[in-house]
Predict the structure of Thiamine-monophosphate kinase.
Amino acid sequence: MTISQIGEFGLIQRVVQKLEMGPTCLLGPGDDAAVVVAPDSRIVASTDVLVEGRHFRRDWSSGADVGHRAAAANLADIAAMGAAPTALLVGLCAPPDLEVAWAEELAGGLSAEAGRVGASVVGGDMSASPTLVIAVTALGDLRGNRPVVRSGARPGDVVALAGRIGYAAAGYTVLSRGFRTPKLLVEAFRRPEVPYSAGLAAARIGATAMVDVSDGLLQDLGHIAAASAVAIDVTASAFDVPSQMRDAASALGVDPYAWVLAGGDDHALAATFPPDVDLPSYWRRIGTVTEGAPEVTVDGKPFTGRTGWDHFR
Amino acid sequence: MTISQIGEFGLIQRVVQKLEMGPTCLLGPGDDAAVVVAPDSRIVASTDVLVEGRHFRRDWSSGADVGHRAAAANLADIAAMGAAPTALLVGLCAPPDLEVAWAEELAGGLSAEAGRVGASVVGGDMSASPTLVIAVTALGDLRGNRPVVRSGARPGDVVALAGRIGYAAAGYTVLSRGFRTPKLLVEAFRRPEVPYSAGLAAARIGATAMVDVSDGLLQDLGHIAAASAVAIDVTASAFDVPSQMRDAASALGVDPYAWVLAGGDDHALAATFPPDVDLPSYWRRIGTVTEGAPEVTVDGKPFTGRTGWDHFR
């Protein structure tokens, strides 16, 4: 059954049934707008668009996978401000021949991922479109925390990372070469495991800057370096490369550190902390902030290419 | 100059320069997420997607026009809850050959329309896409008001309308027949004039239900009738049909009441009020709420077609 067979209102009815409203939702789908709690009196908000063929492929990921990924990418932005996600709003632009079941799975994936952090899909919109596009907006509450922006890193600060890194990029490479395993890597691409609570914890223990690693660690640390006018040096030995990633890299002729340092889609969190910080175990030290021109180096040497680990070794 | 020539970051830099941040914006574009004031401790949020060829045409509307319309459609949803708009977030999916100037105009239009109500475009995202899609999320603050939902209308209530109606639908018909005048109607389609403050005022004087008229007055009143389990009767003589609309209708062989009663894109606000309400002049009475099956009639008779004024006369 396709969307064109049941129409917009039929589709909305089915999709809304896949959504579970949590306590942050005061008024859910069905009115002109939703109403969401904002106890802090400041709201954190971020939007991401996902375009088929560019951000996801239906032959690589199920509707539920795409829902999880779309939600995760947005919720990670909220976590990276040191806030607790409260709500998602979703705009779905879909070709009329899209299977209704796919849209239902998408809604289920979005709702399930939001539910992991106590957030809900509170509203949305739908339209026919030649291109399948999913636009997600995430809202969050600061819970009294100062928002952790990109511009607060200071020379002497510790650089730390929470969450997995390189897994999703490895999974993407595996899929793009036509393989479906190793499952660890492929699943990491399909459904990133975002360390949501590490964002809130970082704000509480005094993170000076934080960023969601969506474009690759070095590039995203570069945003902190630029905004804070500092230099950042990363220590390559700080990263564990699991055996499955090492084996896949070897089989595909790729340097695994290219995935780790330049791959983005895990939505890990990277942050800077004062040097005397007592880091919880899920934040691991990966480098230091120094004075100097705003650049990011690895073991003291510049990184010169997108996947060019060889270039700076 | 096209988007592909300057890239995503070049485009973001140019577009952000077109945005003006007002006092509701605590942290604007450039970080993982924006931060917006929410003094009421409840946030009202709504998303609309606009797809080229479906919601707008570049040969009918300038980039600035589309920006105004996209913002207005979303801000009207916030006003229809009885809230004050605070922020917009915008996802832009654009073909690489889109002119940069068009995107800049779009941003300028979005920002200018938001500025009319003291809101700001606080964040967004961009991606390449074969189809031009604009996804807008609007946020608003209830300022201590109870949210005005669709389900609160009661038999005996007065039905009232704020804002113009039929103008945008008439402008759309004029444009779709290849004309560019009358300017009054064409401009009403390009840049709707939404009675934003009437929404907040309605909440304060006790509106029992309210809706943004986006799909046509009778259809949108039908949402109130269904949600409130009441019948609504509209009085045709309550509507002024301006001479330019009457003349255009006559020239095009259309019944102007089809535009007024079934045309949506003006984003007027329709609401119900207790019978003893003292309505301000910009809310005009157009009908009554009665007991009965949830339907909307005109002068006591059913409306049977989308543009079928003749069918129920």
Q: What stands out?
A: Residues 3-141 of chain B form a domain with the 60s Ribosomal Protein L30; Chain: A; fold (CATH 3.30.1330.10).
